[in-house]
């Protein structure tokens, strides 16, 4: 009997490893559906294939010229040999390699102030509620300490470094209301026993990035700011995938905006040309569950960013997946790999 014990254990272990299902989630701001960058739409499809994403959460879905972006991107991916599923949405969107069991609007887009949608997918027997969020871009208060207005992006006489003033302006956006709607709906999904994953362009940085360690970096101008959206998510038990994987915001700042895209003039990329306005504003969060294991996280896109109005190569320790060809957007994407058990 003893001689079979070790082989049997190894066989059992191998079976357990094989039973884990990889789920790759890509958060992808596509900059007006890739229309700003020559060849941008085809590049979006190419990068989805390149990353091997199973689920994509889109920001800046526009449905130009009475078309449906979800149908066009599915068709483009089909010509590349991949089948995806989606439903009509505007502003943000969801694409899944697994059929959608349901799709719902959580926070509808109105007057370009952002949106949140949900798709429930069944990943080989496990229900996963996937949310996509493109939150309000106005009152982008992370520009205030850098000396720029938060909604007009005009240069201010001086940086705003009073944290209470910065947060008051931040709360004047609709981001906190939008994330509250997400949290309310997500609690219902969790109660059903579903896994929950959120991907989005929050248009707001993380409190994990504006800390004592970074207060004198990246033109934070001495500020330590508990940003509302990520604070709310963390207080409700959600985990920031990238910051969980790479907890040090100095060595791994994880900037996703503004990307150093050489396919367009830098003037189209720089919102605060006299400042270092790099921030991590594209996120993937998840609700911890023993069935869901975080395996990896990587930034997809050019290693370069825009700093003081010029494109410069990043020197951080962040992991990057270089684009296959043309990069279609002014953001960098985020690819997170989970294992479902």
Automatic annotation (TrEMBL):
Keywords: Endonuclease, Hydrolase, Nuclease, Signal. The keyword Methyltransferase does not apply. Residues 1-19 form the signal peptide. It comes from the Bacteria. This is Endonuclease. Residues 26-331 form the Endonuclease/exonuclease/phosphatase domain. It comes from Chitinophaga flava. GO terms for molecular function: endonuclease activity.
């Amino acid at each position: 009997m003893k001689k079979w014990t070790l082989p049997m254990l190894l066989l059992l272990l191998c079976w357990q490893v094989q039973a884990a299902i990889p789920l790759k989630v890509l958060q992808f701001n596509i900059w007006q559906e890739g229309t700003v960058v020559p060849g941008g739409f085809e590049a979006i499809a190419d990068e989805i294939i390149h990353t091997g994403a199973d689920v994509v959460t889109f920001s800046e879905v526009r449905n130009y010229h009475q078309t449906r972006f979800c149908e066009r991107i599915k068709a483009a991916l089909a010509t590349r040999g991949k089948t995806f599923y989606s439903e009509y949405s505007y502003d943000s969107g969801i694409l899944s390699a697994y059929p959608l069991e349901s799709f719902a609007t959580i926070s509808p887009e109105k007057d370009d102030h952002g949106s949140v949608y949900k798709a429930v997918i069944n990943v080989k027997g496990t229900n996963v509620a996937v949310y996509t969020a493109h939150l309000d871009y106005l009152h982008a208060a992370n520009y205030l300490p850098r000396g720029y207005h938060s909604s007009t992006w005009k240069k201010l006489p001086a940086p705003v470094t009073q944290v209470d003033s910065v947060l008051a302006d931040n709360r004047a956006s609709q981001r906190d209301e939008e994330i509250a709607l997400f949290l309310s709906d997500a609690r219902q999904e969790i109660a059903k026993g579903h896994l929950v994953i959120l991907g989005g362009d929050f248009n707001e940085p993380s409190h994990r990035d504006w800390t004592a360690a970074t207060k004198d970096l990246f033109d934070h101008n001495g500020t330590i700011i508990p940003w509302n959206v990520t604070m709310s998510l963390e207080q409700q038990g959600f985990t920031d995938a990238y910051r969980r994987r790479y907890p040090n915001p100095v060595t791994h700042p994880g900037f996703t905006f503004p990307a150093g895209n050489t396919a367009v003039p830098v003037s189209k990329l720089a919102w605060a040309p006299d400042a270092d306005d790099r921030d991590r504003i594209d996120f993937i969060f998840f609700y911890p569950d023993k069935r869901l294991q975080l395996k990896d996280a990587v930034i997809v896109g050019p290693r370069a960013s825009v700093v003081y109005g010029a494109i410069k190569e990043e020197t951080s320790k962040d992991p990057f997946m270089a684009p296959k060809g043309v990069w279609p957007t002014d953001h960098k994407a985020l690819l997170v790999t989970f294992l479902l058990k």
